[in-house]
Amino acid sequence: MTDRTMIIIKPDAVKRGLIGKVISRFEDKGFEIPKLEMMRLSEKRAKMLYAVHASKPFFKDLVSFITSGPVVVAIIEGQDACEATRRMIGPTDPKKAPKGTIRGDFATSITENVIHAPDSPENFLKEYKVIFSS
Questions:
Q1: Domain that holds residue 92
Q2: Of 1, 86, 101, 125, which one has the greatest count of Cβ atoms within 10 A?
Q3: Distance (Å) of CA 48 to CA 28, 85, 91, 119, 132
């Protein structure tokens, strides 16, 4: 089934010059990227993006990190885009992320883990509204 999801290439990856390497992984798999934008997330948007973690002790660090520099947001379109993207990025903890996944190959820590992606089509819609609302 053709669907859409979103990735956010985080400040650590932008700073390390990994944008092209990350995007090419999706292009190499045959996904289309109909929207690609570099931006800086405000604290307000970051808090909305990570609202599900608001009560957790690491929430403040998540918000601080994602707002620490520019990010690149890409819409990924293709067959089973959400599920495939989650497989491609790997687990949050790079120590548990297999080689060949984006986090397994590029992440340096559980915080500086290169990429964010929604875990479901429903969360994609919510996160898209947070990122691209006026």
A1: 2-132
A2: 101
A3: 32, 22, 22, 16, 12
Cβ-proximal residues to 79 (8 Å cutoff; 6+ apart), any chain: 1, 2, 3
Residue 22 contacts by C-beta under 8 Å, 6 or more apart in sequence? 7, 9, 13, 102, 106, 114, 115
Nearest to 5 by CA among 93, 89, 99: 89
Q: Which residue has the tokens 């944008």?
A: 19
Q: DSSP string of the chain?
A: -EEEEEEEE-HHHHHTT-HHHHHHHHHHTT-EEEEEEEE---HHHHHHHTGGGTTSTTHHHHHHHHTSS-EEEEEEEEETHHHHHHHHH--SSTTTSPTTSHHHHH--SSSS-SEE--SSHHHHHHHHHHHH--
All residue ranges of the chain with pLDDT < 50 are: none
Best CA proximity match to 115, nearest among 89, 133, 97? 89
* Residues known to be catalytic: 116
Find out whether 77 and 84 touch, Cβ atoms under 8 Å.
no
Question: What's the structural domain count of the chain?
Answer: 1
Structure tokens at 69: 């520099």
